[in-house]
Amino acid sequence: MSTTEIAHGDEESEDATAGWEAVRDLPPSAKLVAKVLEYNGTLTQGQLSDETLLPARTVRYALTRLEEEGAVRSRFSFADARKRIYTLTVE
Predict the structure, then answer these.
(1) Quick check: 88 and 34 in contact, CB under 8 A?
(2) What's the CA angle centered on 66, arms 25 and 7, to 5 degrees?
(3) Is residue 43 within a helix (H) or strand (E), and if so which, with residue range?
(4) What is the CATH number of domain 3-88?
(5) % of the chain beyond a pLDDT of 70
(6) What does each C-alpha distance from 36 to 2, 16, 50, 61 come to in angstroms?
(7) Which DSSP string do the residues of 56-91 spell out, in sequence order?
(8) How do residues 24-37 score in pLDDT, each as one tens digit?
(9) CA dist 23 → 17, 52, 76, 90 (Å)
């Protein structure tokens, strides 16, 4: 393994750590949503509300905060364009 490959690997682990560091400063609801996404992969807001037992408004706020920190990414659902699917981006 070259020095460049080693350095690049370190950068990736630092980015992942930095991502979770940003999540640690968020409210408990955002942490819960992030953990549920970590375990389940991609989910809609409704599915997140069901899984976390949090009100839809709280989940929406948590997702907004997570997106601001770059910890979550969203895209439109191909099955239902009215819904968005959320995916955790930190590892």
Answers:
(1) yes
(2) 75
(3) strand 43-44
(4) 1.10.10.10
(5) 79
(6) 37, 17, 11, 15
(7) HHHHHHHHHHHHHTTSEEEEE-SS-TTSEEEEE---
(8) 889 999 999 999 99
(9) 10, 17, 23, 9
Show the tokens assigned to 41: 């992969």
Residues in the chain, total:
91
Tell me how far CA of residue 66 lies from CA of 40, 74, 76, 79, in angstroms. Answer: 16, 11, 17, 24
Domain boundaries, the chain: 3-88
Q: Taking Cα atoms as reference points, which of 47, 7, 56, 68 lies closest to residue 29?
A: 56
Cα distance between residue 79 and residue 83, in whole Å: 9
Token pair in block for residue 23:
């999540």
Q: Is the pTM of this model over 0.85?
A: no
DSSP state of 25: T
User: Tokens at residue 72, please?
Assistant: 């979550």
